[in-house]
Specification:
Blueprint lengths: L7 H33 L1 H7 L8 H18 L5 H22 L6 H17 L2 H11 L1
Helix pairs in contact: 1-3, 3-4, 4-5
Length: 138
């Protein structure tokens, strides 16, 4: 009976594929489902859900911009670590807002799971931060 062993190269390829899959899925989610509506229909969101969107309109639009930028950044190889770091901070703050200010603590675990995923992506793609710094310094 043959045993299958994972070589470092195949493990790295699998990790890279998993990361890219997460980056694309989450990037599209933040671009289309989360940030996009905050930019395109902020008044409708605020009217339909007054408890969850009890924040000022300008802050809602800023969050939408940050989510759209982060979603795009997750799918651009040189921006991946920076985008993941920004989205980790944003989702961590969203968890705190939901848990303590919005009165929706049941929504906080989802945001914390996203925070952990973004922190993992940022850690795994940390080399892109050096690439980005080199590009900016040129």
């Amino acid at each position: 009976m043959a045993t299958i062993t994972a070589t470092p190269t195949s493990t790295g390829k699998i990790r890279n594929r998993v990361l890219w899959t997460l980056q694309i899925v989450l990037g599209l989610f933040f671009l289309i489902a989360s940030g996009g509506p905050k930019l395109l229909i902020p008044h409708t969101l605020m009217e339909n859900n007054t408890t969850a969107f009890s924040i000022p309109l300008a802050l809602l639009i800023f969050i939408g911009l940050a989510e759209v930028a982060g979603g795009i950044g997750l799918m651009v190889p040189r921006l991946t670590a920076a985008a993941a770091t920004g989205l980790a901070i944003l989702t961590f703050l969203a968890a705190g807002y939901n848990a303590f200010l919005a009165g929706s603590p049941e929504l906080a675990p989802f945001a914390l799971v996203l925070t952990a995923i973004f922190a993992w992506i940022a850690y795994e793609r940390r080399a892109t931060l050096t690439d980005l710094r080199t590009l900016i310094q040129r």
